[in-house]
Fold:
Amino acid sequence: MPKLSVPLRSKLQNYVNTYGSDVFSTDGVVLVCKICEQSVNYEKKYFISQHINTTKHKNALSKVVSKNKISLLPTVFASSSRQSQFSFDLCKAFLASGIPLWKIENPTLREFLEKYTKESVPCESSLRKSYLTQCYDTVLDMIKEKTRNKKVWISIDESADATGRFIANVIVGVLDHSSDESVKPFLLTSECLDRVNSTTIAQLFTTSLKLMWPEEVQHDNVLLFISDAATYMKKAAKALKVLFPKMLHVTCVAHGFHRVSEEVRVLFPNVDQLISNIKKIFLKAPSRIQTFRDIAPDLPLPPQPIITRWGTWISAAVYYASNFRSITEVVNALEDEAASIRAAKKLLDSPEVKNDITFIAAHFGFLPEMITRLEERGQPLLASMKIVESVVQRLESVPGEKGLLIKGKCERVLSQNSDLDTLRNISKILNGDNSVQVEMDPSVLLCFRFAPITSVDVERSFSQMKNVLNDRRHNMTVENLKKHLVVMCNQ
Structure:
């Protein structure tokens, strides 16, 4: 007659009774060691005996005994909530601070924490397996609570991470008409895409909303979608408007003004070459930097603009216009040992370059400041629209043929952002202008008081991702990366 199998719950309870409820506990599914705060393999009794004889278990047990000055009693670990809460808080603190969990294995850090907290510090594996998901679920529950029955805006962008994967982040913000200030947006999720196109973006949009509204997606509560001006983003937004009839789609205005700045760079190639060559001169060149500091001790080093960072090229041009004489003196003091130095000297002697730098600083030098102002979090829609109108007016006043080209570029960028006109009309209504009409209920119009017109929040989340996925953490799974980011960005 075959041996009857013992039900799992009974089997686990027998182990608890055998070794003591002060050492082990069970919920009928897993067997947990209260001393070490980790699950134990229960398939064979040998595995449990092996765990009890480990150095880690014995050390943790001795600490508990010495702490309470008596033998281990059932009442000591009648409940492991305090110990579990410590590990949970420790894991959450590490995640929110961007500290890798493997740092907990540092002997000095472990000794410090155990000395001053009087707690048994779990290993990195225990934190990752037992508490990372708990921290993530706690933050996700908080997001669900904050967005329940609320009007929201969504922002999506994608970027390649350090391992070459396509990571798309989804930011959600509340549009609350009852609040006198904006609500900080949340990073809802971070997903890896096999490919980046309109279909995958639309799928990500809908699936991320199910995380926030698991019972039923509230289609009428999605009022605004913010993205960059990529073709696939526009195509995805057009398809999503069928499912979300009240949703407006706005492409990032700050990114649009950066495209105008890029047009300025294209129209002045000699200035672009000057900035590029001087950047090369002082890149990883300590002796040249020392020469610069000797000749111009009060002047900061030349900026090193990055094309993908909004407005940095214009800022560099303004720097050279303000310090042209000092820069010329420094470059002329250097020996012609590199092609970049020879090219820079030639460009600095060109009257055309001097005139172009002056023209850029006079008519486009305001763009970086305006982009920075648009990047401010929590700005009212009315204030953001005033900045946009100010930029448009100042670009319209730029004289000459190049001024007409820049004006045309600005008009094309804004004209392709069709729903921006609707937001402009909403801001006018909020400002008391009765000359415009928007087919929306007043309660919905009120929700746009603090509506953003830039995607800077999702850009900031990618900066956080670079802190998490550095050169020493390429083996992190996408699932764990998502949980790290969600906890860290929503601290």
The CA atoms of residues 260 and 410 lie 6 Å apart. The mean pLDDT is 85. The radius of gyration is 30 Å. The chain is about 55% helix and 10% strand.
